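Appendix B, record 7
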Amino acid sequence: MKRSLPWLLPIVVAAVGFVSLGDVGPGPLIKYAAYFALAIALPGTLLLRAAWRSTGNWAEDLGLGSVVGATWQLIGWAIFTAVGWQRWLIVWPAIVLVGFAIFGRRHWRIADPKPLPAAWTWGLAVSAAVMMGAATFGVMAYHPMPPNGEAYYPDFLYHLSMVNELTRTVPPEIPQVVGERLEYHWFANADMAAAVDTTRLTPMVVLFRLWVLPWLVVSLLVCATLARIVSRTWWTGVLAALALAAPQLFLLVDTSVNLAPPVSLLSPSQTFGMVAAVAVAVFLIELLFKGGTRWLWLLIVPVAIVGGGSKPTVLPLLVAALGLAALYLLITTRRLPWRLVGTTVALLLVGALTFLTVAGSTSGSRLQFLAVLKSLPVYTAATGDTTQPGDGGLILPALAHGHVIGTLSLLLGLLLTLQAMSWAGFGVVGRKDPVAWFLLGAMIAGWAGYLLIDHPSVSESYFVYTAAPFSLAGAGWFAASSARAARRPVPIAIAAFALSIVYAGMLVWARGVPAASTGRQLWSSTRMLLVVLGITLVLLAAWRLFFRQAGGGMFVVLVLLSTAPISSFLQSAVRGDTEKAPTYRAARWWVYPDEAEAALWLGENSAPADVVATNTWCRPAGTTAPGCDARGYLVSGIAGRRTLIEGWAYTNQAMAKQGNGGRRYTEQPSPWPDRVALTNQALTAPTREVLRQLRNEFGVRWLYADTRNGPVSPALDRLAVRRHSIGKVLMYELGE
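C-alpha cells (predicted):
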C-alpha cells in the first residue's frame, strides 16, 4: 500500500485540473479510468506476462502491459467494427480477464518480485504529476471544447473527424471526401474510437480531455523501463522521466506555447507511436540480446504494426537500430547474425504493411539537407529564402550564400539546443555491447530523418522526437557507468532537477517579448543560446569543484536536466509571439458560435453514416475561393459526419501538390473539383436533378449551408426540407 501512495499525487493534480476546467464532471472521469484500467492496462499486463514474464514490479508491468492491451483492443476494434458490433466491444477485453481468471491465475501475481526503490516511485509520480498539470492547466485550458471556444487548433478537429469515422467502419474512409480510402496514420484515433464504443462517451470528450492523460503516464513508464533495462540501474529510469516532464513545466507559465515533443499533447499519433516504439525496443532487446523466449514474437509483431500505423517514423528507427547492431556483431564476430538479420527483414515487411495505411502522411516529402531550418520564422527574416517546406533541391538554398553562414550556424545551434535530449545519448558510442549500438542506430536514424527529409508540414521533426527515449536511455546508461565509482548519483540528479526549476525562472525573467524586426528576433534567439551556454559553464565550474569523481556521464545528465525546460522557451521565442491569450484565439481558425452550435445539432439529429454536402471546406469563414486554406473540418469534425467535400488539405492528393504555383499544399485547389462545383450548384442554383444526383450518387442526406461562405438559394426551401437554422447557418434534409 505504501508503494501505491505516491501515485495519488498525479491523480490529485489531474482531478484539480479538471475542476478548474469545469467542462467534464466526475462521472466521465471515473468511467474512463475504469475503462483504461479494466479494458487496456489489466488485460494487457496479463497477456504480457503470459507471452513473456513480469518485470518484477507492477508499475513497469502496467506500462508495457498498457501498450500490449491497446494492441489487443485495436484487434478487437477492427473485428467488431468490420461486422458492425461496435457496441459489444466490451466483450473483447472481458474474454482476456475471464480466460485468465479460469486458466491463468498464476499471471495475476508476480512470481518473482523485484520491487523498485521508493525513490523510483516518487520520481515517476512527480514526473506524472507535472504531465497532468501541464495537460489540464495548460493545453486543455487553452483549448476549450466546442462550442465554448472561439477558435480551434485545426488538427484537433481533424483528429475528431477521424475518431468519428473510425467508430463507423473498417477500413475507414476520408471523412472529408466520402468514398475515398483514408491513408493517414490513424491508429491512435482508432484507439480513441475503441474507447468511445466501449464507454459510450462522446468522441469530443475522449479526444479533447480524457485520452491523452493515461498515455502520458504510460509514456513515462515505458521510457523509464527502457532506460533501466539497458543500464541495469533503477535511477536512470527516473532521469528519463524527469527529462521528459521538465519541458512541460513551461506550459504552466505560458499555455500558448502548446509544447508537443517528444511526448505530444497536441499530436496523439506522436505519443501513441512513441510508446509503441519503446515497447517494441524493450521486447527486441530481451529477445535478441538477453535470451528472451520466442513467445515475444507474439508481442513484437502486433505492437510494431500499431507503432507503424500510428507514426511513419517508428519502423525506420527500429529497423536502423537492428541494422546497426547487426553490423556491429558482423564486424566484431565475423559471423552473420542471422537472428538480427531475420528480425530486421520481419520489421521491413511490417513496415511495408503499415505503409499502406499511412502513405498519405508522407506525400510531398523530399530530400533536402537542413530543410528543418525553414520552419523557424527567423530563418526567412535572416536569409531572405522564401522556399516553402517540401520544396527545393537537395541543399538548403540559403547555404549557397556565404554571407548567411553565420546566421545558419546560429539557427543550427538553436535546433541542437531544442533537441538536447535527442543527442545526449550519443555518449554510448564506442561501448562494446550490441545493445548500445541498437540505441545508436535509432538515434542516428532519428537525426538522419530530421536533417535530411523535407516534409510539407515539417513532420521530419517527429523522427528526432521518436528517437528521444532511445537517447535518454543512452544518456542514463552513460551516466550510470560514470556514477558507479562516485556512488552519489541520486543527490546529483536531485540537484540537477532543482537547478532546472531555478533556470526556468531565470528565463521567464530574461526572455522578454520578441520584436518583429529581424535583428531583434535574431538577438532573442542568440540570447537564449547564451543563457544555455552560461548555464553549462556554471555547471561545469560546480562540477569541477564538487563532483569530478562521478565522471563525465553524470555531468551530461546534469546539463541535460538543467537545460531541458529551455526548449520550451526557445520554441516560443523563435516564433516571435507578441500576444498571449487565455484560450486559443488564432483568427484563421475562428469558428462562429452559430457554426459550432449548428454542427452540434446536426451531429445529434442525423445518423452516424449520413453524408453532408457543405460549403465549409476552407477557413476562416468567407474565404472559399481557390487558394484559401483548405483545413475546414467543421462538419466532419464537430458534427462528426462524412461530407461530400470539406477540408482536403491533409489528403495525399493535396500534399503531393506542395509548391505548385508557389502555394503550400494547404492552399492548393481541390483534387475533386467536380465535388466542389456540385456543392456550389446545390447551394446557389439548386435543381431537382442536382439534388437527386447528390442523393443517388454520393448518398448525401443533408445540406449544411453557411451563408458567410456564399449565397444560398431560396429555392432550397421548395426543393428540400429546412430542418434547422441558427444565425447564418441553414440546414436542409434531402428527400428520397
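Remarks on this record: The first helix runs from residue 8 to 21. The first strand starts at residue 173 and ends at 174.
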